[in-house]
Amino acid sequence: MARECWSRYFISGLSFILALGVAGCASTSESGDLAGIEPVAPGRGVDDYVLVDCLLPGQIRQLGTRMTYMAPRRMVKSTKSDCGIRGGEFVLFDRSDYGSALQTLLPKAQGGDAVAQTYVGEIYENGLGLSAPDYANAASWYRKAAAQNHSPAQTYLGSLYERGLGVPKDKAKALDLYRQASGLTEDRLIFESELEAQRKAFQNELAVRNRVAASLRQQLRSASASKPKPQASTKPVARTTASRVELKRQVTSQQRDAKSEAALIQKELHAIEQLKQNEVGQKAPSSSGKAAQLGKLELTRREQYRSLLDTSRQLSQVE
């Protein structure tokens, strides 16, 4: 899928890329302790703590000696600065301020950006910063993104069809959307290649999330330890206070982002279960192969779901 350790590297240069591999291992340790993850280098700006959904160019991949193919563009979670360095395009959904999020995302969504369209749909579906959910509007935006083969939108839209929210209740349509989002294919090697790429991307995403969280914790502690000297100017104090408020806002945004990712994976797991039940009733020769693919996908998603909940928990402890 386009969740797309996923994505959803932030110190530039080769040294960071090498360091990230180490951080990825640390982030998936049994302890899950942020203290073991190297923070952002001192002196960096607030943008180094802002996570975005970065759409990277596609890559050419080879499957043994059989074939080469162009992989779809990959969605990864990175910082704003690193996304630009890697030649990607990014969409920022600041979840600490739902009130202004819709206004910020709408221009990109109206311009055809599938990620922004999906986020706008999420805002309407969950009534984020609104007086109430608007399922019809959510379905409309999900449909635009799903038409661009954006798998999260396909999953969300399928869920609306399954429940009959904002659209007529249609189990067959929901299953079709779930199938598209799952990435099931008749070619087992292509499916497993894509699934392995997703695993690696998610490991990198988790490393980025945890490194940024560790840095936020370090910066907040430093801000708390800073005490004004007697008769000193109030300007440094004001700057420290403003910086602390901004850092705490980033913590809130990233915690909510991790929870949202986990909620999407929950829906993906439900979709996988529905597809598995449907495959049981199929007698086609390909059914057993697809059932095996669904089993591998389910294991991967469950691992990712647990990791995201753990990351959210760690962010909740950042003070």
TrEMBL record:
Residues 276-290 have a biased composition (Polar residues). It comes from Thiorhodococcus mannitoliphagus. This is Sel1 repeat family protein. Transmembrane segments: none annotated. Residues 222-236 have a biased composition (Low complexity). Coiled coil: none annotated. Residues 220-259, 276-297 are annotated as: Disordered.
